[in-house]
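Full entry
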Amino acid sequence: MTRTFLGMPATAPRGVGHLRGDEPFPVAARRGLADPQLRRNLGHATGTIRAKSAAVIGELPDWQRLRDAGAAIKADVLARLPQLLEQLESAVTAAGGTVHWAADANEANRIVTGLVRATGADRVIKVKSMATQEIGLNEALEAAGIEPVETDLAELIVQLGEDRPSHILVPAIHRNRAEIREIFLRRMPGVDPSLTDEPAALAAAARAHLRRTFLSTPVAVSGANFAVAETGTLAVVESEGNGRMCLTLPDTLITVMGIEKVLPTWRDLEVFLQLLPRASTGERMNPYTSMWTGVTPGDGPQAFHLVLLDNGRSAVLADPAGRSALHCIRCSACLNVCPVYERAGGHAYGSVYPGPIGAVLSPQLTGVADNASLPYASSLCGACYDACPVKINIPELLVHLRAEAPHPPAESAAMAAAAYTMDHPALYAAAQRAARLSRLAGRRGRGLPPPLNGWTLGRDLPEPPRETFREWWARR
């Protein structure tokens, strides 16, 4: 793959993979709203994370300055992304690694599958990775006769349950302890039938199941939270230690990374290692922060491959109004404060990126027409913007994408008529007089009559004034 995709215009083919649902958000959300157990699970989990995050953020007097720094670094990255990616490639190659460029999910899957086949392995261990979920790597590996094994506890629960992730940070957030116990008893070999649903017991069962796999699998696949262009260093942060095992024990390590994850310098990494754990897990620092640079003889994997994934990101970068979605560091803070996500659940969004950031990122990666309902999956309350550690103005992006989404012909015709009317003073004055008649008819804010009431079903119609400004001005 060449680097030419870095200059793709906005009309380039959009991303593929697990970024689209089978049905619009409103249809899928109704099922979530009708599931009281799901709502209890989500409410408890997001409430707990919010409280922990608020406590550790409150300890920092310069939190807002850190947010400003994170936003500024990300803006700088996007302003010179091609240059930084080529610098990263040079540094990784100089350190003994190999860099591959993938324009879309299909190409990334071909690259990874080919690399695994070349080792002769029929199984890989995986670190939790949004990028590999995005491209559907597990399905591609299975189709090639290669078994992917998720080693993150929540990802393992999702995989064993033949389920889909519903949260960026906690993929099994929609499951409670009793449901997890049932999945382990049904799908995990060698589990003691007397297994309880205590968290410690469930974690111990998963640890025993995975330990043999860690020690006998020669190939690992990971994502990356950050990559430093200056040194060629990759970083993964996690809380369980499974990532450390995957990144150090195998002979071959393959990392799939979205091109927006690059940072210019080692010093820039310091900012994000303060922002990410506090905003995501409510910790001062992640228990495990693993960094590696290329290959070190006799220490860790002896073959390292970095797959740089575009999959629609160049098209997002080409949109000056929408590109700030690429600032996202996948902390999930916006999900944990979103009233829509907490009630509808992550599966309603269809994409591997749920919640507010998914509502702006997925439509841009696929093309807005393919995910036209997602920009409306928000009340525009602004809680996501306040919580975002890199200050992505998600409500503003949602409004931008709503303007780009296709609209029903009747609505488009009505808006065109309104624009024409407002551009002609005599017509506008007549429309104001007609609106006052609806006041006399007693509708008083109940919306428009059928069939126009579909538009006002979710919108408040302002009550017409007793006297227009023009009338007031003429009278005075």
